[in-house]
Write the structure tokens for this entry.
Amino acid sequence: MSEHDEILEMAIGLAHEAGAIQRDRYETALTIETKSAPVDLVTEVDKACEALIVSAIERDRPADAIVAEEGGGTDHADAAWRWIIDPLDGTTNFAHGYPRFCVSIGIQEAGEAAVGVVYDPLLDELFTAIRGKGAYRNGKAISVSMETDLSRGLMATGFAYDRRKSERDNVEQFKEFLKTAGAMRRDGSAALDLCYVAAGRLDGYWELKLSPWDVAAGLLIVEEAGGKTSDTAGGNDHWSGKHVVASNGHLHEPMLEVLARVAS
């Protein structure tokens, strides 16, 4: 077994363990706190899932770097492997009993996305990818849709936590896609949205002001499923999460054209 396979196996095990915590605590009483904004939520379940994942990595792979949403672990600039973890992507959904949330674990090798795991514990859907080896859902290969007409495309997006006070948002972009695309969705989990593009359930997705842990796994899964990813200008700054576009490839340029019309 290669080291990539070993890391994938470990990430899958940790995602299942964290997902079990989420499944057990779903629709139970929660302690809910806020972070960067009143709508930026965190629960004890986020923290418990992150502690479980981080402690296992520190125990079994102590040389690896860790970047996690709630601040667990330690990053090392010179580490060969870096784990980028969102222990519960879709916390607002989870806190409200809305069934769209997941565990997201992306792993970089020498600064490049190498392994991705996203697990939806309620649907028991596990999305995985290793760079160069394709994308899978529950062990079966997946691929992006073949839609070529944006007017028939199913698009998705999300809105940033600072939307109440910031003038930079994607509301105008949303309006333009609403008029241009076939249909729109906003489901509250960037990692699952990306996996749905990979699986052909969505034809395209874009969002602003995300963080690396929101996209580290999902972007790789899209690419390995045959899709295309970029920033909103068509460049390569999307791995930061600041501005992300993912598509089936056929609709990528049309999506960028819509975004450019709004920007101008």
